[in-house]
Amino acid sequence: MTETAYVVPEKMIKNVFDLNPWYFSKAYEEYLNFLHRLNDSVVGVHTTADMRCSELVIDFIDMLDSLEKWIDEIPLEEVSEQRFGNKAFRHFYERLCKEAPRLLGHVIPTKVHDALVELVPYFTESFGNATRIDYGSGHEANFLILLFCLQKLGVFNECDNQVLVLRVFNKYLRVCRHLQTKFKMEPAGSRGVHAIDDFQFAPFIFGSAQLIGSKSLVPDSYLKRTVVETHAHTSLFLDCVNFINQTKTGPFHEHSNQLWNISAVPHWKKVNSGMFKMYEGEVLKKFPVVQHMMFGSLFSFERSENVKETSGEGHPTLHDPSMPPPCQMPTRAPAQHGMFAFQIPSVANTSTVHSAAVVESGDLRTLHSQKHPEEHCPPPMSEP
């Protein structure tokens, strides 16, 4: 491996005009391809499946386990003036920042210790923000970027992809849920029922891949609480839904409207591809999220040589011959609706009332039940 000049990662997306260079950057291309490789490695694989873990993976999980023990050691503070976010979280975060170089240095090989200057910021940003005492998909992305950087350094290899998802990332989820519930962390930039989940996103991607090919579970199955409880241990997707059921009250379609809509998608493969498109639109192309991303030599803001601008739209098309066709990114504007490739008729542009609750436009479940949705479509425009 050639010697690299590692630098302290810094924020590069400082205004909306920096979004376009981000779409065309090496970081965007490589990170998305990394997620696809992780996703492909767990297609049809249960979370509880037997898999070989290297000593390094075991050490990494033990390190995350030590973080979780810290949570139990920190007493909560008085909450009389706090609606959310117990200030005791700041003690956890302060200890994390102090111990992070030692913790990571103990796990990774000595030959890459010079890279700690880049790795530590991603690690410390993976568990939430100490000022706002919140957590969201941006923090989750930092942990995945950390794993991406470690694989780029050769600490992990392609053969580790499955254990990175189902062992390392799964353990990270446990730590984050412990933090969220104990310290009552605020969802970072949460849009309520408009978001897929208050805190996480990636486990819905990987978890839907795990369910591809399932003969007993279809997308509609996760609306049944007993089914979810029975099978939560087999898929990160169902595990996340189970956590939602445990922490939220009221009808599912009210507190998790996006998930309720997605349950109408006919099969898991379409759910999985739709999740990737949604992740791009709702995370990677949203300024409030990516403005906090940090870039260095490993996660580089430099323009990728493998992207070409599409005519007229200004969004990149990635060309990676080593990746299968599903890894090619579709051309889609940020936050565009119709992420799950449904033919949404014009009637979907109006809100519909269900049980005194307003359901957002694009109600896939209602549309999916209609026999002839094209009847609502306006006639095609005549040629000029």
UniProtKB/TrEMBL annotation:
**Residue ranges of the region described as Disordered:** 365-384
Q: Which GO terms describe its biological process?
A: mitotic spindle organization
Q: Name one GO cellular component term.
A: cytoplasm
Its EC number(s) = 5.2.1.8
Concerning CDD domains, the annotation shows: PTPA
Q: Where is the protein localized? A: Cytoplasm
**Family to which the UniProt record says this protein belongs:** Belongs to the PTPA-type PPIase family.
Cite the source lineage: Eukaryota, Metazoa, Ecdysozoa, Nematoda, Chromadorea
Q: What is this protein called?
A: Serine/threonine-protein phosphatase 2A activator
Main subcellular location of this protein, as a coarse class: cytoplasm
Q: Which reaction does it catalyse?
A: [protein]-peptidylproline (omega=180) = [protein]-peptidylproline (omega=0)
State the protein's purpose. PPIases accelerate the folding of proteins. It catalyzes the cis-trans isomerization of proline imidic peptide bonds in oligopeptides.
Which one of the record's GO molecular function terms can you name? peptidyl-prolyl cis-trans isomerase activity
Q: Does the keyword Cytoplasm apply?
A: yes
Instruction: Identify the enzyme class.
Output: isomerase
Q: Name the residue ranges with Basic and acidic residues bias.
A: 365-377
Alphabetic keyword roster: Cytoplasm, Isomerase, Rotamase
